């Protein structure tokens, strides 16, 4: 009896494995087609200065415009793109498109681009970044690259060398999802990051807890003593905003201020904010 159930479970498991494998194969083929046909698009989410509520930059977040499934989230296809190596051409497209879009935004707005481990491991990565900057006319100082701990996990020396090269050229380097890995803190000693992006799990889990903010306060303090800007991700409520402000973080990002939006919408948002500021300063004068 138990054996029969066991065998049945095994069969079901194998069937599910086959199904998953088939789905992956289909998605991989569709991803290749999407690259060829230009079916990816970038949405941008503001990175906001907590001192004056001004938009300092935007993060480029890729979406896949699927003919049947609609707008597909990167959490669905980025892992497969990384496993299949498709992240290299996709990442190159993202970098070039983000630089072009940012070049059309005001000079004081920077653009942050997420970079996967496989992209950075590529010998020509720094060269590709320089080409994207040259082709778009974007100044290197307006580009931020966001990397996660996994980027520094393997092949570390040459990855660090590439990052140093880019940083010398003026590109800024952020550590994304800080605190979710095993040794985020030790990486702060290995590379002079310009910014720490504190993962949104820290704000989400802090709601209604008496220790709300304690971890954020500690990371902000760590950043301050190392001269690194701290940004808190995933701010959804006024209460969370008040907490991160009280703990002294410099920047925030989250649905409360704005979700990721198409570039035209973000450009309008930035222009509207600038117009309001000039009205306010004219009234004050
Ligand atoms: P990430 O780099 O940590 O980006 C922030 C993610 O948090 C985005 O999800 C954003 O939409 C979401 N987010 C922002 N504010 C809030 C909030 O208040 N609440 C909640 N619940 N979520 C918020 P998205 O766009 O789905 O991207 C997910 C991840 O996919 C990114 O996380 C990044 O790791 C990866 N990704 C996105 N675009 C690219 C890309 O061009 N290249 C690479 N390599 N990875 C990318
Ligand atoms: Mg990011
Ligand atoms: Mg992040
Ligand atoms: Mg995150």
From TrEMBL:
**Which segments constitute the EAL domain?**
24-274
The domain of life is Bacteria
Task: Spell out the protein name for this chain.
Answer: GGDEF domain-containing protein
Source organism (scientific name): Methylobacterium haplocladii
